[in-house]
Q: What sequence folds into this?
């Protein structure tokens, strides 16, 4: 069976599955990640590692190939990796624009949620982050 190469859509789906309270979603997400092509999916695995809110013991027990990928990279940490460490790692891996773009979009979404929790009228914000295509 050919290994899956992760992409924007699959990573978004996996992150949604990890946010679910349904244990079967975790199992499906873990199965996808366990059976992906780790070399071709390396930047996407870095993003999953950083954004999933799972600690290292979860990865070691359930998806050891992710820990194998991130160990030795700037993103590897006992705690949630910093934005700087994730970006540094993605840049060092020559990650495609789509990976960095999704990472930045996830952080804009988090910022918007935080501002809403603080009572800021986020419906009055107009924001976007787009990266230029590599070919431009």
A:
């Amino acid at each position: 069976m050919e290994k899956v190469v992760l992409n924007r859509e699959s990573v978004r789906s996996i992150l949604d599955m990890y946010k679910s309270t349904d244990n079967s979603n975790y199992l499906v997400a873990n199965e996808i990640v366990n059976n992906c092509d780790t070399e071709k999916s390396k930047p996407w695995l870095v993003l999953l590692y950083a954004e999933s809110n799972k600690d290292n013991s979860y990865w070691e027990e359930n998806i050891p190939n992710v820990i194998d990928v991130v160990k030795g990279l700037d993103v590897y940490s006992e705690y949630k990796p910093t934005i700087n460490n994730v970006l540094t790692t993605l840049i060092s891996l020559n990650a495609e624009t789509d990976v960095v773009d999704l990472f930045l979009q996830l952080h804009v979404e988090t910022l918007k949620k935080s501002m809403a929790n603080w009572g800021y009228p986020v419906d009055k914000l107009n924001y976007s982050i787009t990266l230029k295509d590599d070919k431009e």
